[in-house]
Amino acid sequence: MLSLHGPEGAADHAGPSPGSLPPYAIWIDLNDPNAEEAERIEAQTGLRVPSRQALSEVESSSRLRRLKTGLSLSTPMITFDQADSQLKPLGFVLTKDRLITVRFHDLRAFAAVKTRIAEGDGPCATSTEIFLLLMEELVDSLADALEDMGADLDALSTRIFDFDVRARPSARPDDKRPPRRRDLALRRILRGIGRRGKALGKIRSSLLGLERIVPFVAAECESFSEGEADQRFETIRRDIASLDEFETRLSENVQFLLDAALGLISIEQNNVFRVLTVVSVVGVPPTLIASMYGMNFKHMPELDWIYGYPYGLSLITLSALVPIVFFKIKGWF
């Protein structure tokens, strides 16, 4: 989808002459463009529209390039509006007169910039100023994503460390029974930690891409930037640095919660083995007594006792109860 924008907002697609763009169309936004749209923009601007494959290159020399008339930039950018976040390439072609953006998913930052341009919120008379607006909104979107991630991790932390406190949401405060299907609850916690960890990795990739783009553009576009551009570039750079630190702390928190969840799983496994150990120990003495009296030797005094059978059953029962009482006193179950 192709959209054109000028200092006043959205622009018409038709220029003053056939095959031309409106002179006030500074920003050309290509959202998942087809071949026809890309060829049209290339013919009308003389600038090459990078393909998705070209924007997906990982080496810095491919992501940050100096062109004859401007700059070609690309970075992976996380999707914010889906439960299962994804990384998709985002590209910029920045010249003195034009800004071409190539993306393959909807981004709130782009919608926010279009609204700001239409409302006259912020300088947007040049391609560099619109580029700066996009950088500011992208950084703000990443900051919002990290804040939401922090809140999610706090909720996960509460679920992990209060795992044994309440049996059910409606349980009484003094009800300390363990929740049902503990294994299922722990698997859900692990899946939640894994999803947050994966999303943090994608946010980190997006931040790294912006962290490389901002100083490169600030150094390379001095010839066609003016006004407060340098100060705004520096502000964006500082914001990205602060988000890097915040993301690092969240990553450490994810690792801490993962260790805590694995510790809970280890405790649950130990509880299972402890129960099995108690059962096996309780069953050994009765088995020994029953085996002894089942040998059927000829001279066994108990065979002639009137109460030999009740005596044997009582001995078996007593030998099973003694270990149970012992382990109960020790608090093993």
TrEMBL record:
Subcellular location, principal: membrane
Membrane topology per record: Multi-pass membrane protein
Transmembrane region(s): 306-327
Name of one Pfam family that matches: CorA
Cellular location(s): Cell inner membrane
GO cellular component, one term: plasma membrane
Reactions the enzyme catalyzes: Mg(2+)(in) = Mg(2+)(out)
UniProt keyword terms in alphabetical order: Cell inner membrane, Cell membrane, Ion transport, Magnesium, Membrane, Transmembrane, Transmembrane helix, Transport, Zinc
InterPro entries: CorA_cytoplasmic_dom, CorA_TM1_TM2, MgTranspt_CorA/ZnTranspt_ZntB
GO MF term list: cobalt ion binding; cobalt ion transmembrane transporter activity; magnesium ion binding; magnesium ion transmembrane transporter activity
Statement: the UniProt record of this protein carries the keyword Transmembrane helix: yes
Family the entry assigns: Belongs to the CorA metal ion transporter (MIT) (TC 1.A.35) family.
Protein name per the record: Magnesium transport protein CorA
